[in-house]
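ugh ok fine here u go
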Amino acid sequence: MKFNTRTWAIALACAGSMLTSHYSIAAAASPAGGKTATSQRVKRINLIRWTDQQIKKDLNTLAENGEFDTARKKLGQLEDQVIAYMPRNGLAALRHADFARRLVSQLSSISNHQHRMKMLKFLMANHELAATLVFLNAPGQQNLAQVYHRLAAMRRALGPMVVAYPNLTAAICAVLYKPLTMHINENTVHSPDPVALFKYYVRYQRSMYFGIRNVPARLLIYVVDSCSSIRSMIWALNKYHGDSMVGQLFFRVPYDYSTYLHGTKKTVDIKGYNLPNILQYGGVCADQAFFASQVGKAIGIPTAYDVGMSSVVGHAWVGFLQQVGNQAAWNFNVGRYTEYRGVVGVVQNPITRRHEPDSFMSLSSQFIGTTQRQRWNAVVLTDAALRLLSFSATHGTFSPPALPAEVYGCTPKALGNSVPVQLALLKRSVHQCDGYAESWMLVGYLASKGKLTLAEKTLWAGALMRLCGQRYPDFAMAVVQPMIMSVKNPRQQNQFWNRAFRIFAPTRFDLAAEVRMMQAQLWRKAGHYNRAGIYLMDVINQYANAGPFILNALHQAVAILRQQKHSNRITKLYEVTWSRIKAPPRMADPFMHESNWYQVGKLLEKRLREKGQTLMADKVRRELQAAGNPVAGN
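structure:
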C-alpha cells in the first residue's frame, strides 16, 4: 500500500454544530477597563483561550492584508505548538487550530484574490457550513478551487438555503465541482445540474430513507454522486421509496443475452438508457448494478457502483448502506451474483474520482451513533499524527516555538515526533471514533515501513481485528495484511496469520482462503515448500468455491510439484481441484468461460492430452461444452 500524505490527510466531514468558539473577522478589541496592553499580556490564560486569540489575530490580519501564504504559515506553526504542548484535555484547541489552518490553506487555491476574500468572509460568517466543507476536503486537493467556485455558484442560485443544509451543500460541492461522468459499457451517463439536485433532495427529504439534514457529509457523497436525470430519480422515488434492500433491485433487471447469443445491440441501448428502460428491457451486470445504485441514491440511500478487480470481463455489482437496528453497515454481497462473491471490488471515490478498494469505505458506517465532537476529535488527532510523520520526513526534529509564559495548564516539555508519540495520538483518535478509517490506515502504513515493534503490531492488530474482524472484515484484511507482512520472522508472521484465519474462517471463506494463500507465499519464500504446499492444498480442498484465487493456488501448487520433481502428480492435482469446484448453472452465461470451474477444466483437458489420455480429455471437453449450452427458455 503506497503512502501519500494527501491521502492520509483526507478529513471526515460531519453533521452538527460548528466550533465552540467563533472567529469573526473584525478589528481586535482594545483593552477593557483601562488596563494597559502590558497587563493584558502577562495575565494568565489557558491554552484554548490563547489559541482562539491567536487564530482571531491571524484571521483579522489576513482580512486586512490578504496575504494567505503568511497566514497559512502562522496557523501551521500555531497548530504545531498546540500539538507539542497540548494537555490531555486540550482537544478543543487542536480542533480550532486545525480548522483555521485548513480553511486558509484551501482558500489559497482560489486564484482570483477578490473571490478568495469574499469566500473567506462568507465562510467565517457561516461556521457550520465552513467546517463541514473544510473537513470534507483535503488540503492540497487538485480540485479545491473548483469546489469553492461551485459553492459560490450555488450560493448565487440558492441563497440562504446553502447555509440551512450544510451537509448537503458540502457534499454536492465536493462531488460535483465539475460534471460527473460514468461509462457503463457502451453507454455514457452524466450527473444532473447541481442546483437541481440540491432542490430535489430538499423537496423530497421526508421521503429519503435516512433523511438528508442529519446524514454526515462523508456518507452523503455516496448519495449525491448520481448520474441519472432528475426525471428518472423522481420515477425511482415514486416506485421504490422506503425500500431498504437496494441490493436486491440488482436482480429486478432481467439479463439481456442479445449481444452474447446473437451479436446484436441490447434493447435498452436502442430504446434509450435511463432507469425505467433498464428495468423494462434489461441489461447485463453493469446495467443491473447501475440501476440498483442509482435507485438507491434517488431514495436517499448511500450506494456504490462496484467492479471486480480480477474479473476479465469487468463484472459489476452494487454496494449499499443497510440499516441494522440502530446502526448501519455497508452490504456488498446482496447485490451481486453468488459466483463472484470472492472477487475483490473497487469503487470510485466521489471526491477524488479515483478508484479504491471497496473495503476502504466500509468502516464509514461506524460514524452513525457517534457524536460530532467525537468524529472531529478523531480527524484532528490523525491530522496531528500525520503532521509529525510528515515533519520527520522533511525537517527532522519537531521543535515548534515554546508557548508564552502566561499560558498555563500545558505539558512542561514539548512532544517529539517519534513513532510512539504518533501512535499515542492515533490511539486517542481511535478511542474518540473508531470508524475513522484514516487512523487505522496510518497505523498500517507505519507498520508496513517497519516503524512498529512486534509488541505494537500485536496490540494494534488485535484491536483492529476485535473491532472489524466480524463487522468489517474486508477493511480489517486490507489494513492488517501489510502490517503482518512486515513481521520478518516467518514463524512469528505465521502466528499472526493464524489469528486472522480463526476470525475469518467461520463466516468469510474468501478471506480465510486469502490468509492461507499468504501463508503459502510466506513459507515458499522461506524455502519451506512442503509447508507451503500444505496451505495451498487447504485452499484447494476447503475453499475451492470461495473465490477466484483458486487458480492462483493451483498454479503455485503446480510450481512446487515441479520444483520438488513431482510432475507426475500434476494431473491428479487438476482432477482433485476440478472435482472440488461447483459447476455454474447450465445456461448461456457470458461469464461461463471466466468461471473457476471452466478454467480448471480446460487446464485438466490440456494436461490429459499432453499425457496422451485422449478419451479422458474428450470426456472433460464434452462436459465443458454441455455446460455452456443454454437450457430451454433462457
